[in-house]
Design a protein that fits this description.
The protein contains 10 helices and 12 strands. The longest helix has 19 residues, at 90-108. Helix 1 (9-22) packs antiparallel against helix 2. The protein has helices at residues 9-22, 27-42, 53-62, 90-108, 125-128, 187-195, 230-243, 283-298, 314-326, 332-345; strands at 4-7, 72-77, 80-84, 110-118, 136-142, 164-168, 176-180, 205-206, 212-213, 223-224, 268-276, 328-331. By secondary structure, it is α+β, with helices and mostly antiparallel strands. The strands form 3 sheets. The protein has a 7-stranded mixed beta sheet with strand order 2-3-4-11-5-6-7. Strands 9-8-10 form a 3-stranded antiparallel beta sheet, with no helix packed on it. The protein folds into 3 domains: 1-62 and 314-350, Orthogonal Bundle (Hypothetical Oxidoreductase Yiak, Chain: A, domain 1), CATH 1.10.1530.10; 69-180 and 228-299, Malate/L-lactate/L-sulpholactate dehydrogenase, NADPH binding domain (Ribosomal Protein S8, Chain: A, domain 1); 184-225, Hypothetical oxidoreductase yiak, domain 3 (Wheat Germ Agglutinin (Isolectin 2), domain 1), CATH 3.30.60.50.
Length: 350
């Protein structure tokens, strides 16, 4: 039986920050990493928050990840930029990219900022959501940090989950936030299912003979399936070309499996777009219209057996409210790994 403890968000942030500082990460970087990783857990993205901490620490200690990267500008035009992440944590690189895109969009109406020589950055919604504070729409795409999907009809793992997130502000409702992988399930969900002693639903993975694979402990033998069959494969390919190849980052066979290799530079690619609503519409009117769309969608007649229609971002908002009030669940297996990590680093256990 899986035993789950609950941890307050503030305590989780402190724990993550202490772990990074124990590895000589500068305090400002450690604090920013802790805040963003905790936000992943608060929002219910359990495969992308503190779950990843042991893996990040392992890469730092193996020399595969810089704790104090020099994030530099490779090229720039009024509405675009390309950053070199200096092999730093993706959270730091893409926070910088989102901030730059927002500043450029204030002048140009829209801005696109790409990044290379970055790393795993957690859940996509973190960066798509950042422009919302400036009454902008955000869009984020990344090349996944390990290949788990073949091209449609193939068996060679040349593609990743390659996620996309889009965030659109509203007035009184939660923002509309689409955050999805181009595979049926993100690989982090498979790893968390293993932690919880759960099976995967059929349709998430197949083996190389095309048979359904439901045991998450055998995920290394399997192939992730794309959303919508060949359509998901096409999206993964296009996103990889835009976030990887266009930026001079890794894509296809060049992607380093950061789950298995802690030393090699991953050269992960991403991009973020900020779009100023005021360049197209009155901000207040637009946000009120988004609220009206919320109401319209929610009030649709439902199929038999459907209790509620939800919009993208609704569950994230509800989960965040519940977890801020009642704590973040930490499954037993993860808790044990974090306790061991704390002991190795000489910090207080979670």
């Amino acid at each position: 039986m899986t035993i789950t403890r609950k941890v307050e968000a503030a305590r989780l942030r402190d724990f993550i920050e202490s772990a990074f500082r124990a590895c000589d990460m500068p305090p400002e970087n450690a604090s920013q990493m802790a805040r963003l990783m905790a936000e992943a857990d608060i929002g219910g993205q359990d495969g992308h928050g503190v779950f990843r901490l042991p893996q990040y620490i392992k890469r730092i200690q193996a020399g595969g990840l810089s704790v104090d990267p020099e994030i530099s500008l490779v090229s720039e035009r009024p509405a675009t930029a390309l950053l070199d992440g200096g092999n730093g944590p993706g959270h730091l690189v893409m926070s910088r990219a989102a901030k730059l895109a927002i500043e450029k969009a204030k002048t140009c109406g829209v801005a696109w900022v790409g990044a290379r020589y970055s790393n795993h950055a957690g859940p996509a919604f973190l960066y798509a959501r950042m422009p919302l504070a400036e009454d902008m729409i955000g869009l984020y795409v990344a090349v996944g940090s390990a290949n788990h999907m073949p091209p449609w009809g193939g068996t060679d793992m040349l593609l990743s989950t390659n996620p996309i997130a889009v965030a659109i502000p509203s007035n009184t409702r939660p923002p509309v936030i689409l955050d999805m992988a181009t595979t049926v399930a993100a690989y982090g969900k498979i790893k968390t299912a293993a932690d919880r002693g759960q099976e995967m639903p059929e349709g998430w993975m197949i083996d190389k003979q095309g048979r359904a694979l439901t045991d998450p402990s055998r995920a290394g033998e399997g192939l992730l399936l794309p959303i919508g069959g060949p359509k998901g494969y096409g999206l993964s390919l296009i996103f990889g070309l835009l976030a990887g190849t266009l930026n001079g980052a890794a894509f296809g066979a060049d992607v380093v499996d950061f789950n298995a290799d802690s030393q090699s530079t991953t050269n992960t690619g991403h991009f973020v777009i900020a779009l100023d609503i005021a360049a197209f519409a009155d901000v207040g009117t637009f946000k009120a219209q988004v609220d009206a769309i919320w109401k319209e969608m929610k009030s649709s007649d439902r199929l038999p057996g459907v209790d509620e229609i939800r919009l993208p971002g609704e569950r994230l908002a509800a989960t965040a409210a519940e977890r801020r009030a009642n704590g973040i669940p930490i499954p037993e297996a993860l808790g044990n790994r974090l306790d061991s990590l704390a002991d190795r680093l000489g910090i207080d256990r979670l």
